């Protein structure tokens, strides 16, 4: 999933409004779906009055959002349009792409027997009967290998990402990432993988993973703004229960992070199967150009 062009390159204060209002009004609520006789999660879209009330709770002005006669200003309309877009994309696109462990296993096995990979296929961190390949990571690794045209890839970096100039370190990221193409020094692309098929709650470890990706994105933004060096940055995540049933507010934050420019793309669940091959081909093309220039 790429960011919607309508909501990129917006000023930082726009995102301050998004975060502040979301925090006060909340991200989701539940309602009874009579067709399935159970509660259904709904992404909250605050009304103009709700926005005004939320800001008033913090003794903040809303006159720049609601003008004469409570009509939305251009800034207010853009803000409301974004809240609507965020809700629609999560419900209509993100949730349908998220897999459970059974779906992920089926996709993994289908690709494994078709591709006969030689790339690393790590095991998950479970014990006993749940000990198995890390299905989502395995899918990602296989797709990268199958589309990399023989160019190397670091599927499990054990060092910090470093960019260089004149054969000297220029920037080094604060934390290790889950993968780098073609390697961890001067990579074209780096990525984070968040698969949580076996969690029963949305714990702090999952939440921390979102903010770690945000930290990487902020460091890469500084690198680009001050050194004009671009490293592509991706987040790939899966588990319908963890992200949709338990962590929908964090999905909202991830959509925000995508549009703030801190990740180039987010690939949700099954989206990697059709979306990742074309991305890898772009990396290959860029690496061949770099080698020949």
What descriptors fit this protein?
293 residues, alpha/beta, 2 domains, four-stranded mixed β-sheet, two-stranded antiparallel sheet, 8 strands
| SS-derived structural category | alpha/beta
Task: Domain count, please report it.
Answer: 2
Portion of residues within helices: 40-55%
Strand order within the widest sheet? Answer: 5-6-7-8
Per DSSP, what share of the residues sits in E-state strands of 2 or more residues? 5-15%
Average pLDDT, rounded to a whole number, is 92
Whole-number radius of gyration? 21 Å
Provide the succession of SSEs: HEEHHHHEEEEHEHHEH
Number of DSSP E strands: 8
Instruction: Compute the number of helices.
Output: 9
Global shape: globular
For the largest beta-sheet, the strand count, sense and barrel status come to: 4 strands, mixed
Low-confidence stretches: none
Give the distance, in angstroms, between the N- and C-terminal Cα atoms: 31 Å
Structural notes for this entry:
- It is built from nine helices and eight strands.
- By secondary structure, it is an alpha/beta fold.
- The chain has two domains: 93 residues, no CATH class; 192 residues, no CATH class.
- A hairpin with a 4-residue loop joins strand 1 and strand 2.
- The longest helix is centred in the N-terminal third of the chain and has 24 residues.
- It is globular, with a radius of gyration of 21 Å.
- The mean pLDDT is 92.
């Amino acid at each position: 999933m790429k960011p919607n062009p309508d909501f990129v390159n917006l000023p930082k204060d726009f995102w301050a409004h998004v975060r502040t209002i979301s925090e006060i009004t909340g991200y989701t609520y539940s309602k009874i779906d009579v067709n399935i006789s159970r509660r259904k999660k709904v992404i909250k879209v605050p009304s103009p009055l709700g926005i005004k009330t939320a800001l008033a709770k913090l003794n903040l002005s809303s006159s720049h959002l609601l003008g004469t006669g409570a009509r939305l200003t251009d800034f207010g309309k853009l803000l409301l349009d974004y809240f609507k877009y965020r809700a629609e994309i999560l419900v209509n696109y993100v949730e349908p792409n998220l897999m459970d462990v059974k779906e992920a296993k089926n996709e993994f096995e289908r690709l494994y027997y078709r591709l006969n990979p030689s790339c690393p296929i790590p095991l998950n961190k479970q014990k006993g009967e749940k000990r198995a390949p890390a299905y989502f990571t395995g899918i990602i690794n296989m797709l990268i290998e199958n589309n990399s045209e023989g160019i190397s890839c670091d599927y499990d970096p054990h060092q910090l990402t470093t960019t260089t100039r004149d054969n000297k370190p220029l920037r080094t990221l604060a934390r290790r990432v889950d993968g780098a193409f073609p390697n961890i020094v001067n990579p074209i692309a780096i990525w984070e993988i968040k698969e949580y098929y076996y969690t029963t709650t949305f714990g702090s470890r999952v939440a921390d993973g979102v903010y770690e990706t945000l930290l990487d994105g902020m460091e890469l933004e500084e690198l680009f703004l001050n050194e004009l060096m671009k490293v592509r940055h991706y987040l790939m995540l899966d588990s319908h229960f963890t992200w949709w049933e338990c962590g929908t507010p964090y999905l909202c934050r991830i959509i925000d992070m995508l549009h703030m420019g801190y990740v180039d793309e987010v690939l949700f669940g099954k989206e990697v199967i059709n979306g990742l091959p074309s991305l890898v081909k772009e990396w290959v093309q860029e690496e061949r150009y770099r080698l020949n220039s």
